[in-house]
Each structure stands twice: as structure tokens, then as C-alpha cells.
Amino acid sequence: MSISLSVLDLVPVRTGQTSAEAVASSLALAERADELGLTRYWFAEHHNMPAVASTTPPVMIAAAAARTRRIRVGSGGVMLPNHSPLIVAEQFAALEALAPGRIDLGIGRAPGSDPVITQLLHRSGTTSDVDRFPDHVRDILALTSAEGATMSFTSGGTYTVRATPTATGTPEVWLLGSSDYSAQLAAASGLPYVFANHFSGEGLERALALYRGKYRPSEAHPEPRTFVTANAVVSPTAEEAWDRALPQVRMMARLRTGRPLVALETVEEARDAEASDNLAAPFADWARSSWFLGTPTDAATALRDFSARHGVDEVMISPVAGAYADEPMTSATGRAQTLELLSGAIAA
After folding, report:
1. Residue 348's CB: how many other CB atoms inside 10 A?
2. Which CA distances in Å does 162 have to 110, 147, 157?
3. Residue 211 pLDDT > 90, yes or no?
4. 319 close to 335: Cβ distance less than 8 angstroms
5. In the Cβ-directed half-sphere of 123, how many Cα atoms lie within 13 Å?
6. Burial letters for 198-226: b for 16+ Cβ neighbours within 10 Å, e otherwise?
7. pLDDT tier at 137 (50, 70, 90 boundaries)?
8. CA end-to-end distance (rounded Å), the chain
9. Which of 99, 198, 246, 337 is 20–30 Å from 232 (CA)?
10. Minimal CA–CA distance to 1: which of 279, 321, 334, 309?
């Protein structure tokens, strides 16, 4: 079975790097992914995290679309409770007009932030009710369709609303999740589904089984369609791969133990800190067993096994390779290396 590779990018920010430099390095990485023939490149939505600069997927998608020529670009995902469905529909209609046939709209139900930021978003902008998530997904599908959405007034009469600019096509909508909820909603709606395996991995088999077993065919998608995300760090040697993985493992440890968040450490900083605090130690086995981590041959073998085990022909990797202190701030050396080495080994 042939395997397609795609990319999920959180636009990581490392020590000493500005958000602008992090954005520049991610856009360069999107160009490289396009040159390598990868399938799609998605940007996540997270807020108020020192190590993450991906807060506005539509803006990043527009920039990446302008610098690439064939790869699909999209959101992984737009966290719908933070936004008005009409605004999301119009943003992605505009993106589809800018890059026809290349836009993916991945939608998530989680806030992508802490409770304080969630409240700030609700107080300072137009958002949507998380309890009406299924309705809002249907609204977006209708608004981006050629027919538009029809509103009925309580006083009688109807009004048609369409996302503008009206493009010749529509963005492809995917539901994202890490629980049974989104899997079942995607199945009931006849939509493609992605499980956020890069975040935890727990519940993957159950979610895919629910999605496939309960899938209701739709006109656009007569068969269930899914792929899976996973973290990846691939280097010429296993030692370098672990070096580059260590900053991200330590960041995950901070998230899971409630420690203060900081910019992503350099490899050297992570090594020095780990020698004294052992922060990553409880999570090392998890990373080694659930990430595609190691040499190109080892990582490609693991990816093929993973793909076959879960019945998917596409894997979206989050290239989480850290940087050495002397690497340029506007480059994505380790992350680009992961894409180059892994895609080459898969194609071999």
C-alpha cells in the first residue's frame, strides 16, 4: 500500500526566536513540503502559548498558498467555538478563491486555549456556542455551498445567505477530534474525519471503529475517509533524532504536569536542564513508542506498520524536531530534515 505524507504545523517558537522568525521558518517549510510532493500542509490554532505562533490558521494558509503551487493547505484546525460560523465560511471561501482546489477546512470543537483566553475570546469577539457545534458545522457546509443557507424569519419569509466571495469550488471540510464525539458526528454527517493522535493517541482504535462502523454516506463522500496524525523526528542517526526530540518531549511534560510554559528549548538547553530535573524521563518511553522517531529506515518501517494497522493510506506528521543553538532563526533545519528523510525513505 502506498502512503501519502502530510504536515501539521503549530509554528513552534524556540528560545531567542521572535514569532515573526518562527512564521518565516514555517513558510519556508511549507515550500519545502510542496517541493517534496507531500499531500497537504495544515496549520493548528492555539492561543497564549509561548512556544506556539499558530494562532490564526486562515492568515497562515493564505501566506502558504501564495508560496506554494500544488500542495493542499488548510487548518488543523479552526477551533469553531472561538469563531462565528459565517466568518469562518467567508474566510475559507476567500481562501478557495485564492487557491482553487487546494483548500482544506479542518474544524475542531476544543477551544485551543486555557479557560481565561476562552473567556477573553467570548468577551472581545463574535464566537459560537460549543453546545451547538453540530448546527454550526452544518451552517458552514451550507454557507460555502453554491446554494447557500436559507434563513426563515419568525414573521414569515426566507433569506438566502452565501459565503462570499463565491468561488468556483468549495473548501473540503474535515472534522477533527481526539474523542468519540467528533468521530460519531463526522460519521453521521458523512464527512471526512481526522483523529488527533499526535496529542495523546489514547482512544485511536475506538474512534476509527466508531467512525467507520457508523458512517452514513453523503453525496460528496460516499465512503468514510480518514487519516491519522503523529509526531515525527527523523535524523541520520538515532542519537541526533533523540537530541532533537528532547525539547518537544520536555514541552509535553510541562503541559501534562501543569508547569509554566516557555518557548521551546534548544537542544543544548534541553540537555542541560534534563540532566538536573529529569522532566522528560517519565515521558521518554511514550515518545519512543508512539512517535516516528529515529533513522529514516526505522521511522519509515514504523510508519508503514502504523498505516497498515489502522487502515489509512495517509499519515499527517507533526515534525517536532528541535533546533541546535547555532541554527538560523528563520530556518526549520531539523523539521525540514525530518520531512526530507522520511519522505525519501517511504518512497524508496
Report:
1. 8
2. 26, 8, 17
3. yes
4. yes
5. 6
6. beebebbeebbebbeeebeeeeebeebbb
7. confident
8. 13
9. 99
10. 309
SS3 64: helix
Grid cell in block for residue 341: 528523510
Taking the alpha carbons of 97, 101, 107, 112 in that order, is the dihedral positive or negative? negative
% of the chain exceeding 90 in pLDDT: 75
**Contact status, residue 70 vs residue 101, Cβ threshold 8 Å:** no
Burial class for 331, CB neighbours closer than 10 Å (0-12, 13-18, 19+)? middle
Cα 302 to Cα 4, 24, 129, 297: the distances in Å are 14, 31, 40, 9
Q: What angle do CA 137, 142, 146 make, to 5 degrees?
A: 150
Q: Are 172 and 92 in contact (CB under 8 A)?
A: no
Pairing of β 149-152 and β 72-79: unpaired
CB atoms within 10 A of CB 86: 17
How do beta strands 103-108 and 40-43 pair?
unpaired
Beta strands in 162-274, from DSSP E residues, in sequence order: 172-177, 193-195, 226-234
Higher pLDDT, 194 or 113: 194
Contacts of 254 (CB under 8 A, 6+ apart): 260, 261, 262, 279
Coil, strand, or helix at residue 283?
A: helix
DSSP assignment of 202-234, as one string?
TTHHHHHHHHHHT----SS-SS--EEEEEEEEE
Residue 112: closest CA among 123, 100, 121: 121
Q: Residue 283: how many CA atoms within 13 Å on its side-chain side?
A: 22
Nearest to 214 by CA among 236, 230, 197, 191: 191
Could you tell me if residue 129 is left (phi over 0), alpha (psi between -120 and 50 degrees) or otherwise beta?
beta
pLDDT at 258 over 80: yes
Residues 254-284 as b or e (16 or more Cβ within 10 Å = b): beeeeeeeebbbbbbbbeebbeeeebbeeeb
* Crossing angle (nearest 10°) for helices 281-290 and 238-257: 120
